Each structure stands twice: as C-alpha cells, then as structure tokens.
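Summary for the funding panel

The consortium committed to producing paired sequence-structure records for every protein in the target list. Below we show the first two records in order, beginning with the earlier of the two.
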Amino acid sequence: MTMNAGKGTLNLGGGRFGSIDSTVNAGSVRVDLSEATLQDIGITLNAGDLRLVLPAASFQGSWSKGSTVPMIVTGSPTSRRASS
C-alpha cells in the first residue's frame, strides 16, 4: 500500500498475510493488524504520520522514517526488529 498526500484506514485484523509493505508520503494512515497472522512487515514513512496496531504474535519487520515524523506503534509482538 502506498499513500501519497492522503488519509486512509486499513482494517486488516484477522487476516492472513505473508508480507505487508507500506509507504506513506505526506499522508496519514492507520493500519490495524490486531488478530492478524503475518510473517513480515516493512514500512517507510516520509513526511506523514502512521498509527500501527500490531498483532500479539511474533514476526519480523522493519521501518524507516524521515525526520520529525510521528509514528505510534501499539500491540505486544514478542519479536520486533527496527531500522531507521
């Protein structure tokens, strides 16, 4: 999913995904992955804001963000890896 200068909500809770990749450019996005099953997540955030609700299950992921970009991550994954 790519969001450019817009606002969006993705309710993906309960879904089964191998990989989810998202890029937010000057936008505002809320992604709900609670109760979802996924193996991998990748997020790039540029001049926007993101609210990410994670599942409680273990998975691997990474994110990168530009300067002065707010990011809120909730949930309790048992394995989290981040690069910025």
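The next record, for a separate protein in the list, is shown here:
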Amino acid sequence: MTFRRGSKAADIAVRPIPASQRMVLGIPLDINRMEIRDFDKLPGIGPALAQRIVLYRQWNGGLMTVDDLLKVEGIGERKYSVLKKFF
C-alpha cells in the first residue's frame, strides 16, 4: 500500500500479527485463524488438545463463539475459564 503526502510517497506494509505476539501484547486472539502450534502455546493446551480444537473447528465450519471451546473433548469449565481471557 502506498500513501502520498505532497510529492513524498511512503510504502506501508500491513500484516496480521502472529498469535504468539498477540498473546504477549494482550491483543485478543482470532480463534478461527489460529493453528495447532498457536493453541499449543496457551496454558493447559498441549499438542493433542490443540489438534482436537482445530479438528472440531474444521468439522463444524469454525467456532461461532469462544464458548464453543466447551464442546471440545478435554476442555471443561476450569480450563475454559483460563482460556477465555485470550479471546
């Protein structure tokens, strides 16, 4: 994207912020764009649960709300209460 101000032009690159950086900055994560490796970085989520979340999302056409995490095997109320603050 190029912007002009008078005779000067400036190129500005706009890219999505990776999930790991969003976590550090306290920016809410996009639950439907995260990959297995992103979920794996969340507290209480290992590779197997991360894969179940992504598979659930694929089979159901996405997660409509963060509450849908409760439908994934291995996520109960306690784990959900920790995770929901990231979304």
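Regarding this second record: The two ends are 29 Å apart (CA to CA). The chain has four helices and two strands.
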